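All the exercises in this workshop are built on plain-text protein records. An example says more than a description, so a record of this kind follows:
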Amino acid sequence: MTLSRDFKTLVVLGKSGSGKGTQVEMLARDYNFRIISSGTLLRSRAAQRDFVGKRIGEIINKGGLVPTPVIFHLWLHELEATREDGSARGVVFEGSPRKLYEAWMLDETLWFYGLDQNMLVIHLDISDQEAMKRLLARGRKDDQPEAIQERLRWYQEQVSPAIEYYREKGKLIEINGEQPIEEVSKEVLEKLKDFLA
C-alpha cells in the first residue's frame, strides 16, 4: 500500500526531562501518528536474546550509545511497516536524530521514501537547571546528578548542531518546554496548525 501524499513526518527533540514522550504520545493519539522511539525500539530489540539483542542490551546497561547504523536499521523497519499498513497519518520520531550526521541520514531516508516534503522538527526547549530539577524529582535510579550533567553536556555537544541544522533549513519550531504540559501542548498545536490541517 502506498502512503498518502499528505503523510506527515514530525521529529520531537529536547533534553532529558523536557517532556518529549508526553507530547509525542498526545500527538500520536490525537492525530493518528505512528511513534518511532529509538529507546523503545532498542529495548524491544534487546529483549530478543540473539547476538544483536544481547549486544544492544550490554551497551544500554552501561549507559552507552548504540551505533547509528543499528538504530537506522530499526527505523527503516518501522517506516516499511508504516508504509505496508497504510493507516497512519504520519510518523513522529521521539528524541532522534541524536547527532548532525543522523539528521543528514534521516533526510536521505525520508527522501528515499518520498516523505521529505511534509516534515517539521519540534524543539522542546528547557534550561539545564530545569532539566536537572525535573530529572531529580522523578527519582529514577539512573538520574544521579553526575549522570544528568553528562547527559546535558552530551546534548549540547551532539544534539544542538542537529537542531541548528534544522533551524537553518527552516524546518524548526521552537517550543517553551518549561510551561505546564497542557500549555506546551497548546503551543505545539498552535504552531502546527497549518501543518496538521
